Sequence to fold (546 residues):
Amino acid sequence: MTADELKELLGLTDEDLKKPLPKPTKWSQPYWDAAKQHKLVFKKCTKCGHIDHPPYLYCTECHEDDHEWIKSTGKGVLNAYAVNAFAVPFPFMPDLPYVTAMVDVEEGPRMITNIVECDPEALENGMELEVVFQERTPEFTLPQFRPVKK
Amino acid sequence: MSKGEFAVIGTGEVPCGNYPDRTEFEIAYTLSRMAIKDAGIDKSQIGAVLGAAHIMGSEYNTEVVFGRLPEAIGLRNCQVTGQTVSGGASSHSIRRTAEGILRAGEAEYVLVVHAQRFSQFTMNEQAQYFAIAGSDLEFEVPYGMTYNALAAMVTQGYMSQTGTTVEQVASVVVACNRWARLQENAMFRDKELTLERVLNGRMVAYPLTAYMCNVLADGGSAYVMTTAENARKVCDKPVYILGEGSDYSHRSITKSKARDLAKMGAYLGPVAERAYNEASLAPSDMDIYEVYGSYPGVNLIVMDALGICEPGRSGALVEAGETSPGGKYPCSTNGESLGMGHTGTGCGFAIFVEGVRQLQGKAGRAQVPNARFLIDNCGGGAFMDCHFTIMGNEIP
Fold:
């Protein structure tokens, strides 16, 4: 169903169909700044080397503040997925069916993301993926993944 | 805790389902009187009242925190009141709070109450709340994550890694439905679900059809807890708390301690084992396994931890009818949230109270004959934690 059909059927406004955007924290802002430049980055502790994703105020391993943002290769592997078909929040209804997934990224973190540019029937756990960037608004770009073309 | 230090002596429950005219206050007051009467004590003996949280907020939460319950129930000798909340694990954290109050000697008898009325909210409000409650607002919700998507992902990963079939997942719903039909307060007491019907339900989030997703309901339950010493004086058949095992894993499923979904059961196994060991009992000593997973795939993961089959093989057990009424391993005898109805923070309370009824021989048509011991389970969040409790009507 298209956004216009939804509005007509359910009496929704444009506001009802706006997708939720991240509300960055002081410590996650660099992640979204990088995504805007089409870079996937992770927060890495410079003391102990631990990577926190999602990022937190200080290293959850050693409690140190010092950190760097490392750039990911953007390569990942599909761990598990769901093909959403019904009963999702209004803003996502025009996208049905869409895929939400857990992806293990090369640097170690596991992310919740979408798998795009792929027939859901062709999804297979363990398949190789690569990051792509969806510019959702001028302020926010979301890292998503698609199958690596063989 | 020392083994058998505390006991539950009485319970109350109201019908679960869509009851818009029955306020959460009416539920709480009704349940309190019921549980006190069932416990066979005078209301003046209750020294503490703990209320669970009403999901999506309401005047009720404020009133519980501001001490409405003891006044409305007429508890003249109440010394402590409050609210303990940890989502679907609230039944555990609130009971542990009750035990602490008893141990401190602040009260002789504690009343614990849960009440929920989802029907005061529109379907859209409920859908919007639960769509995102289980997900990280910054890193997951913008991707269209929902609670159902979370459970579907976990189920898909578990199935693919263990070889569990979708029929086996669906058979959990059928088994829960069989139990629910023996429960007078269950939402689905009059609705028979076959495997075909569950599998052919509307697809919500592959691999989950609508019947594999729990349904929100109004409802509530309550119980009275005391020390074992008091319990023996006032109650013919107290239900003792014999052992506990708990673990917290994560907020976001991506941070789960068990990285491998097939090994979730193997990760939870030692947690259940702690509870068995504390009770000096083995999995085979259990007459009932009160699992609250909230989604059929999660129920299978929890069953994998119980020591009744190899991790990853729970699906075959359920498919063979072993967890249904009359089976070798009666599981989730109130029908779980899938058959009883999902009452927010209340599913853990409902299954705990059902466990007490079973061990007191008050479980009606769902009664498992001569039940002596059981393992109770709950968890909350985005499957953030898991708790196992061994209960018995005697101390081994």
